[in-house]
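It would be a great kindness if you could assist me with a short task in structural biology. The matter concerns a single protein, recorded as an amino acid sequence and a row of backbone structure tokens. Could you please explain, in whatever detail you think fit, how the structure tokens follow from the sequence? Thank you for your consideration; the sequence and its tokens are set out here:
___
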Amino acid sequence: MSQPRPIKVIAVTGGKGGVGKTNVSVNLATAMAEMGHETVLLDADLGLANVDVLLGLRPKKNISDVLDGSCSLEDVMLQAAPRLRIVPAASGTQEMTSLSVHEHAELIHAFNSIADNLDVLIVDTAAGISDSVVSFVRAAQEVLVVVCDEPTSITDAYALIKLLNRDFQMMRFKVLANMVLTEQEGRNMFNKLLTVTDRFLDVTLQYVGSIPYDESVRKAVQKQVPVLKAFPKSKVALAFRQLANKADSWPVQSLPRGHLEFFVERLVRGTPPSDR
């Protein structure tokens, strides 16, 4: 029996809205697909879908149809580009923003059905620190916290990290500075966050770099095309490709951690003796 391939699961989050999380998610997923990885992007902002809008897609079904049992996850997925599929969220649906623990578990388990044709799952979370955000972040292997140069961005990123650390013993977080004017500005943002986490929390933060502020991002959003495709030679496109290269090298977890997580069944199966 062949060994199931491990799947890399990255949650893109940030605490506050407006830090560019969805743009990061869309372009990171696009870059991973360009590298040859079978990639799925889950719009986990369940009540205010916007991944499909950024990509100019018009879904007929979405995640709420999976939850009510009217179709499978495979049925709602949209092909956005070669090797890139999207799981769209519902838009303007209040009940999707307050799912029960059981419903979150059902949703996370639903992904097992697509595991055989998947290398990378990117989860674009909602803003804030709701139960939904926490569920999806805890179910991922890597947490990419996006910050931008606003005082509230650092405060809210800290609040999210604090909650995940104090209440759920999460220790490792990767930090991406978005919309920076200089590389130094990105490092300064990271250092501000590091100063408070070092003082008050027992966590390890890793700086994974910055994405420059670039007008071409706004133009790409208006065109409803990822900036990677609309302006492939722009500085910002280069930065997203560098981020994807880094993400590609992050090791994939191979053991379950004892709580609800994506593709846990593949982890439980373990490694056959010949591969040890």
Q: What stands out?
A: The CA atoms of residues 67 and 106 lie 7 Å apart. The radius of gyration is 18 Å.
